[in-house]
Amino acid sequence: MERPTHSPRRARMTDAPAISALVEAAYAHYPARVGRRPAPMDADPRTEIDANEVWVISGDGALEAVMVLRHAGDHLFVDNLAVAPQSQGSGHGTALLIHAEARAASLGLAELRLLTHELMIENRAFYESRGWEPTPPPSGESMARVYFRRQIRSE
């Protein structure tokens, strides 16, 4: 039996069905709260794997967490971070964010960014407790989003 690990690996196309199931389960409680399905629930993992950096953590033969990183000029954007409900609290989300920092640094980028819905209070608390800083929304933003950034420390 494969032991859980906090070591991310790049997703493969064969991971796409498991990524869909993981994201669906991780976000299942949000549509009722925010009034619609969050965008990651409807994203095509095959398209994400092809166009972006998709990282997964697996254990016990199943995917436990996924992160989608999108290159956005002067920063990396965390498009999605999801942990399977049964694996939440295991440190996988933190491990993926640490990996995102390392990826940004390896690309010579000084910042990571992400957004979440204002009613996803667990997400907001998670990011803030890990040193992510809320930032003003772009001008003209009309959706109920909270934007975050994380400066990458140069070593």
Structure characterization notes:
- The protein has helices at 16-26, 30-34, 39-42, 45-51, 92-106, 121-129; strands at residues 9-10, 53-59, 62-71, 76-83, 111-117, 133-135, 145-151.
- With 155 residues, it is an alpha+beta fold.
- Strands 1-2-3-4-5-7-6 form a seven-stranded mixed sheet, sandwiched between helices.
- It has a domain at 9-113: Gcn5-related N-acetyltransferase (GNAT) (Aminopeptidase, 3-Layer(aba) Sandwich).
- It is globular.
- The chain is built from six helices and seven strands; from the N terminus they run βααααβββαβαββ.
Taking the sheet with the most strands, its summary is: 7 strands, mixed
Low-confidence stretches: none
Average pLDDT confidence is: 91
What is the level-2 CATH architecture name of the domain at 9-113? 3-Layer(aba) Sandwich
Write the CATH homologous superfamily of the domain at 9-113.
Gcn5-related N-acetyltransferase (GNAT)
DSSP, total strands: 7
Could you give the distance between the termini?
Answer: 37 Å
Give the SSE string: EHHHHEEEHEHEE
Residues in helices, as a percent range: 25-40%
User: Which radius of gyration do the C-alpha atoms yield?
Assistant: 15 Å
Oligomer: single chain
Q: CATH topology of the domain at 9-113, anyone?
A: Aminopeptidase
In CATH's first tier, which class of the domain at 9-113 applies? Alpha Beta
Task: Provide the structure class.
Answer: alpha+beta
Strand content: 25-35%
- Count of separate DSSP helical elements: 6
Strand order of the largest sheet: 1-2-3-4-5-7-6
Taken from the alpha-carbon principal axes, the silhouette is: globular
